[in-house]
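Running this now, will post back.
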Amino acid sequence: MTIAVTGASGQLGRLVIEQLKRRTTAGNIVALVRNPAKAADLGVQTRTADYTQPATLERALTGIDTLLLISGNELGQRATQHANVIAAAKKAGVKRIVYTSLLRADTSALNLALEHRQTEADLKASGIAWTFLRNGWYTENYTGSIGAALAHNAFHGSARDGKIASAARADYAEAAAVVLTTPGHDGKVYELAGDAAYTLSDLAAEVSKQSGKVIPYLDIPEADYAAALKQAGVPEGFAAAIASWDVSAAQGALFDDSGTLSRLIGHSTTSLAESVKQALS
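Update: finished.
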């Protein structure tokens, strides 16, 4: 069985490739990337594949049995880009597509959900066997801000006391590899999230504990948070999106207590303490 991974040179894609190499031979794995030079270190076959260039996609997917479609990162463009991949996969004879969607994409209030819902609908209509990995938040979405929090002596956000059941990228990558290499997942929807939920105040307390520096969490209005992100160099549109995601978190959009992810990978998800430790190191 030949398995291809889109976006294989990205943060999640690289982790998936490494997990796959533990479960099957490298010769069965194909890394699909826009720039093969960036994937030369993965130790598997690489093929050029650009979501925006359908001609590259059909060539890249020729001879592929199972495809992991990692959702793109261009907000507002993803539904069209994913549709290009699905159409090319159908032409190339791909038998199964596993898609990285969003936690409770069918009902989520996150503005990210709309494009995921469209892609899920496109996959269901494609005639290709599908599996949806509805990934919750990556813990790295927040631990990536630890450096700035230490520099400014505070975490800022608009999530109030919303519970966030995030997991490390490595956990989601392992789940993808399990689904890609084992049977029985066709037509399944997996709601994936971390085992233990936390608030941003909990995150700030853990950073304080491990860093030895008092770092409080300061909750501010959405508009103020967006403005602060913009001032820090985040593009205006993306800053507004990040702030809106925090507001959605306050309303429960990032919480899940099903334990589906840990059952799928066969062990507990990475703890917040461990993720903070890795970030600080």
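The chain has two domains: 3-135, 137-167+193-256+268-281. More later if anyone needs it.
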